[in-house]
Write a structure and sequence with these properties.
heterotrimer, A mainly alpha (217), B mainly alpha (106), C mainly alpha (584), A: 217 residues, mainly alpha, Four Helix Bundle (Hemerythrin (Met), subunit A), C: 584 residues, 2 domains, three-stranded antiparallel sheet, globular, binds protoporphyrin IX containing FE, binds copper (II) ion
């Protein structure tokens, strides 16, 4: 594509008229993708609701095995990371190179903290015999024949969410390295913006998982 | 408000962002308090927990994800996705809540 | 895009008459296998999808012929025993649904045509588009691995609890379909954004071709429904692997819940398959009647209405599953509503034909076949949606006939209409019109001979998915098998003349059908960037009362033009009036 005219900045792909159109398209594309994510998790929430209305006792009994304290800590960690990612976008908009890099690094660090806490929660459960699946489940502290169903739902919901956290870390590392090369500034920060949107979504989902799984009684 | 003229390029001030972050953390503490200390009777415990969760989600969507300043279409997308989720749950419950046997025997 | 200050802007436009002898096209730029495999050009990606879809269609068709051959007799024959039979119908169904019909129109034809109809250079996210294609390929590889291992015998619907117990490679196939789902989701996301953001100057929502409206509605369904399929399959994989107890009754789960999840996707998915077909029908019917479509808004909005109502009716597949009586009643009622927007479309198409100058070329022949077969399919759908009737007909050949009338008689015939319609644009070659008609007629006859008897035997009680049958049904089964052979011959003829046209076909003019639609105002085959200029649209896509020149306008001084082969006629005095056109 040799004959790009000089009015076309380097970051604008050839099929867009201008930077504005590219930015709007990317953002809208991300929102459409968020719709898809909402329904993806929606299926899990639907299963949760159906089983909860069938077996309310099961849910109140089983939830006692989840650690409210660490769940709350993780909520705060994710909220913090949402805040720093918003700050990162602001830094990019303001051409603050250092602020952008530091905020991205803090976000990545917080995401890792979330995963580490999650790891300890999982390993404690696995240790006492709370495993996903009827045959693997050996814990005897809950007096309900379907206890494994609750934890099946728990593991899948938090597992799929955790997977999203891992993907988010990958995306943010990618953004971080591009930021280090000085690719972003007030003229062009589209990838930072849409990665930020994704990360907020991960936070949004946890905001619902936390009360539904940990706080019910 | 340090608003930019072009839509979609709102720049929030640090104060705004910190205020939202702070509110989210306070709400998290409140919801834990309600569940573990105050103990509302059913169904009010669920209603408060969900109300707080939706408030938090609203804050994130409006001020972190910038929907408050963004074109209305993106807000519409989010609402539509929730509407379809509710539809899915509501219609499924129409079956699962009204069965003669919870899980029919085979 | 609409900033508040600039409500009108004045554009300098001129006429760009497409060259009849383009030397530079998307086929001559970037040649070679590697260039194709790494291209982000929507046209090449569309062609690659088309080839993949054709391959899977041939595979699925081969399986179908094997099935029908087996059913010539009820007895066991050497090469197909009962277990092999289960595998064959499962693979036939899964391949035709997931690998052929779902991607066929949007990802293959849509990819090629949609940006051209919008006057855009590409889709909004070209790299994502290529990624979607490779995700599709990876999904296909998983399915082939399953074939090489133990195959699949659960039916395309993967119902639990059988799918958690079956000895076949369920996890491989479901993983493959899970991956495939992402291809579909990403294509939908890409299309929605493209339609919103990449329209050429002048293409307002009311000037959008109906094909675009249909693709838009389809994309909406893809984005809303496919994620639910993904999560369902993930839960199914977990159920089979770990026994988590959500769907498997032996573990405390509920198999009917699986059906809810599955049909929450799969009923809307039937609209993912048919709605893009509606778009093609609208385009072809207007071009070959040389007439504005009747009821533009009725057709455009009924696509969206179908997309919406399609989400409310999934339980009509579960009337006999043990679902609550309240739910069955509500679902039966809502099912009737779906018929309304579909009926609106049929009436408007027929009204479009009225007093048009109809030309019966191959694409139009397929449109008539579509109208006839799809109406039968739709009506029988309504009959199946009637609660009491359904109890009798559920899981019989009547259902098999219904969905073949809509999926093959509807979607596939529409695909063939579109394929023949856009073939000259895509390849730059004309096909043999006479052979085209012969094969269309053979397909029509073969189709009806195959599937009409299935309505009869279904209503007499022949269950679907059975390997064996009682003598009473022998004549029906045998007629049906003969019909499938006729169909096969029809498709072989088509394969022959299409290949022939690729290598020896006559050169196609830029606009062989005299259409007013924007994609026909590019060269055949199009330039690498679709148009050499930025098109400007001032009329609706079906305004046949306006002269052709006025559909060939573009921005006169283009700062970002790429093309070379467009013939510019700046001095045409007739067109002087467009030199300073205001776009409201
Ligand atoms: C007027 C619109 C339609 C109505 C009211 C309708 C209604 C129904 C009903 C009630 C059934 C369930 C039959 C049973 O299993 O007992 C059914 C099955 C089916 N329909 Fe339709 N349908 C319509 C259009 C379509 C379209 C457009 C397609 C696809 C392009 C389609 C594809 C199918 C398929 C694949 C099945 C069988 C699924 C299976 O069990 O394997 N239908 N339809
Ligand atoms: Cu259906």
């Amino acid at each position: 594509m040799a004959n790009h005219s000089s009015t076309h900045p380097a970051h604008v792909q050839h099929h867009f008229v201008d930077s504005e159109q590219q930015f709007d398209s990317a953002k809208m594309g991300m929102w459409v993708f968020i719709v898809n994510e909402v329904l993806f998790f929606g299926g899990l929430f639907c299963a949760y609701i159906v089983f909860r209305t069938w077996y309310p006792d099961l849910f109140t009994q089983a939830a006692t095995q989840l650690d409210t304290f660490w769940g709350a800590v993780n909520t705060v960690v994710l909220i913090g990371s949402s805040l720093t990612v918003a700050m990162a976008i602001r830094s990019a908009q303001k051409n603050q190179q250092r602020g952008l890099e530091i905020n991205l690094l803090i976000t990545i660090a917080l995401a890792c903290v979330f995963l580490v806490i999650k790891y300890f929660e999982y390993s404690h459960k696995i240790h006492i015999g709370i495993l996903p699946g009827a045959e693997n489940y050996t814990f005897e502290g809950i007096d309900h024949p379907l206890a494994h169903v609750f934890f099946g739902i728990y593991y899948i919901m938090t597992g799929v969410h955790g997977l999203h956290v891992i993907v988010g870390i990958g995306l943010m590392l990618w953004i971080y390295f591009r930021a280090r090369k000085g690719e972003f500034g007030s003229e062009y920060y589209t990838p930072v913006e849409i990665t930020g949107l994704y990360w907020h979504l991960v936070d949004l989902i946890w905001i619902f998982l936390f009360p539904l799984l940990y706080l019910i009684e | 408000m340090s608003d930019n003229h072009k839509h979609g390029h709102h720049i929030s001030t640090p104060a705004q962002l910190w205020a939202v972050g702070g509110a989210l953390i306070v709400l998290t503490i409140v919801t834990v308090l309600f569940a573990r200390v105050i103990h509302l009777p059913y169904p009010f415990n669920i209603i408060t927990a969900l109300a707080i969760a939706f408030t938090k989600a609203g804050l994130v969507a409006a001020f972190f994800m910038n929907l408050y300043w963004d074109v209305k279409f993106n807000l519409m997308l989010l609402i539509a996705s929730l509407a379809f989720f509710i539809l899915m749950v509501a219609i499924t419950l129409l079956d699962t809540l009204y069965r003669i046997e919870v899980v029919p025997s085979f | 895009m609409a900033t508040a200050e600039a409500t009108t802007k004045t554009l300098k436009v001129q006429r760009f008459k497409p060259s009849e002898n383009p030397t530079n096209t998307y086929l001559t730029d970037e040649k070679g296998v590697w260039a194709w495999m790494t291209t982000v050009d929507h046209k090449k990606i569309g062609i690659m999808y088309l080839v993949a879809v054709a391959f899977f269609f041939a595979l699925g068709g081969f399986l179908a012929i094997a099935l029908r051959t087996k059913l010539l007799t009820g007895a066991s024959i050497d090469f197909i025993d009962a277990d092999a039979y289960n595998q064959l119908f499962t693979l036939h169904g899964a391949i035709m649904v997931f690998f052929v019909l779902v991607p066929s129109i949007p990802a293959a034809l849509g990819n090629f045509i949609m940006p051209m109809q919008l006057g855009a250079k590409d889709v909004a996210f070209p790299r994502l588009n290529l990624a979607s294609f490779y995700i599709y390929v990876v999904g296909a590889i998983f399915t082939f691995i399953a074939l090489a291992l133990n195959g699949l015998d659960t039916g395309w619907t993967f119902y639990t609890p059988y799918s958690t117990e079956s000895g076949s490679s369920v996890i491989w196939v479901t993983t493959g379909v899970f991956i495939l789902g992402f291809s579909s989701i990403l294509t939908g996301t890409n299309f929605i954004t493209t339609i919103h953001k990449l329209r050429a100057p002048g293409i307002t929502w009311s000037k959008l071709p109906l094909n675009i409206w249909a693709l838009y509605a389809t994309s909406v369904i893809q984005v809303l429904a496919t994620p639910v399929l993904a999560i369902t399959l993930l839960l199914l994989i977990m159920e089979r692997w770990l026994g988590i107890g959500i769907f498997d009754p032996a573990m405390g789960g509920d198999p009917v819940l699986f059906q809810h999840f599955f049909w929450f996707y799969s009923h809307p998915a039937v609209y993912i398959m048919i709605v893009p077909g509606f778009g093609i029908i609208s385009e072809v019917i207007s071009t070959f009647s040389k007439k504005t479509v009747f009821g533009y808004w009725a057709i455009a909005l009924s696509s969206l209405a179908i997309a919406f109502i399609g989400f409310l009716v999934w339980g009509h597949h579960m009337f006999t599953s043990g679902q609550s009586a309240v739910a069955t009643t509500v679902f039966s009622f809502l099912t009737f509503l779906v018929g309304i927007p579909t009926g609106i479309k049929i009436f408007n198409w027929v009204a479009t034909l009225y007093k048009g100058s109809i030309k019966m070329d191959t694409p139009m022949l397929y449109v008539f076949i579509f109208l006839f077969l799809f109406s039968i399919g739709g009506f029988t759908g309504i009959m199946l949606g009637t609660l009491s009737v359904n109890i009798h007909l559920h899981d019989t050949y009547y259902v098999v006939a219904h969905f073949h009338y809509v999926m093959m008689g509807g979607t596939l015939i529409a695909l063939l209409a579109g394929l023949h319609y856009w073939w000259p644009k895509m390849t730059g070659k004309m096909y043999n019109e006479r052979l085209g008609k012969v094969s269309a007629v053979l397909i029509f006859i073969g189709f009806n001979v195959t599937f009409l008897p299935q309505f009869v035997m279904g209503s007499q009680g022949m269950p679907r998915r059975y390997y064996n049958y009682i003598d009473q049904f022998a004549p029906f089964h045998q007629t049906s098998t003969i019909g499938s052979y006729i169909l096969g011959v029809g498709f072989l003829i088509m394969l022959y003349y299409l290949l022939h046209s690729l290598f020896r076909g006559e050169k196609a003019p830029a606009n062989p059908w005299g259409s007013r639609a924007l994609e026909w105002q590019a060269t055949s085959p199009p330039d690498f960037h679709n148009f050499g200029h930025t098109p400007v649209v001032i009329h609706g896509p079906y305004d046949y009362h306006q002269p052709m020149e006025e559909f060939q306008l573009g921005i006169a001084v283009d700062t970002n033009g790429h093309g070379k082969d467009t013939h510019v006629e700046p001095d045409d005095p007739e067109l002087d009036k467009w030199k300073n056109y205001s776009l409201g």
